[in-house]
Model the fold of this input.
Amino acid sequence: MKIIEYEPQHQQTILNISLEWLNRYNVLEEVDIEMLTHPERILKAKGHIFLAQGEDGEIAGMVMLENRGDSYEVLKFGVLETFQGRGIGRQLMSEAIRAARAEGKKKLTLCSNHQLSAALHLYQEMGFRYIDRVESCFAMSDVFMELNLS
Done:
């Protein structure tokens, strides 16, 4: 797997990747559809969308980073079920951390849902720590974490 930057031809793919897990855990919200159908908004605001691409060109996973000034918020982090268990999520999150550090960000933040135990475990392994509830645009979010990059 290699990590690449999002391009417009990947729009349907990022929607498919995210809908797979959002529907599986019944956490899909209107705001998710808005983000995934207009990913250019993340990029125009100096954010990133990283994709995990196999040698055959297939996209197996993704992570969005929304620019929050001195930090990035991790959004829509997911790996297709058929590719899980291969370290792809760890590769994507490592790239997110690398990019944030390279750009001088002080932290990465995220909001999630308690049902997403595999993702929560990975976040902890990567150094994220639980924090008190923060304001979020996601009604289904009940877990809040951050990674201090200083």
